[in-house]
Amino acid sequence: MTALLEVRGLTCGYGGGIVLDRLSLTLEPGKVMALIGRNGVGKTTLMRALIGLLPATAGDILLNGSPLSALPPDARARAGIGYVPQGREIFTALTVRENLLVGMSAAPAAAPSALEAVLDYFPVLRARLGQRAGTMSGGEQQQLAIARALASSPRLLLLDEPSEGVQPSIVDLIARTLARIAASTGIGVLLVEQDIGMVQQAADRCAVMDKGRIVNELDREQIADMELMRRQLAL
User: Fold this and answer.
1) For the chain, is the Cβ count within 10 Å smaller at the N or the C terminus?
2) By the 8 A CB rule, do 24 and 35 touch?
């Protein structure tokens, strides 16, 4: 299967210091890859590099075989990258509908049916379209943040710690929904996550990160092994 996302020898950091050190990974269409590792190993830095907020000093990023490294963040969004940052960063003063329309505006070519599609995945939002986003629960806000990213009809969806501040039952719901979205649409999902249960429910593969590199990859059978997952998180 042709890779949707290819990262080859990616190196970057802050203030002259290296955080990502020749990191490489691949993600196929319709698959969910979880990225795990201790705090400080470079997971969020990788997200920032993929969306163009942090320039690479070496290496390549390709989406469907097209190089992205020279493109600014807005061009990467138009190329098909959706991003849900840690902390959600929804527009709290806007309604749910207005937040979703902002997501659609990031990709003018997005199909008019995109809004209905994301509401089918997250039906709780349909009943709250006129509600100000800041008045919703943390779990509802997280669903809105994911739906807003999906409203741009991305080919690749990046999520940074979507379980943070969300009650366990909603974490389970989001995990199952992400797996269903990937399988039914062909979108690739790269998920930075520390919640082992969420990884086990959502991910087809799991990449383990340490010191700015991918040091191990686990398949679905290995992901289901709780003790093995705990050991990987302790690296």
Assistant:
1) N
2) no
CA separation for the pair 221, 142 (Å, rounded): 28
Q: Which residues, other chains included, contact 146 with Cβ-Cβ below 8 Å and sequence gap of 6+?
A: 84, 122, 157, 159, 162, 174, 177, 178
Radius of gyration of the chain (CA): 17
How far apart CA 180 and CA 59 sit, in angstroms, is 32
User: What are the pLDDT digits (tens) for 51-76?
Assistant: 999 999 999 999 999 999 999 999 99
If we measure between CA atoms, which residue out of 94, 153, 95 comes closest to residue 125?
95
Q: Domain spans of the chain? A: 5-233
Please report which confidence band the pLDDT of residue 105 belongs to, taking 50, 70 and 90 as the band edges: confident
Of 6, 50, 2, give the one whose Cα is nearest residue 29.
Answer: 2
**Which H or E run contains 149?**
helix 138-150
5-233 is a CATH 3.40.50.300 domain: yes
Q: Are 118 and 100 in contact (CB under 8 A)?
A: yes
pLDDT at 27 over 80: yes
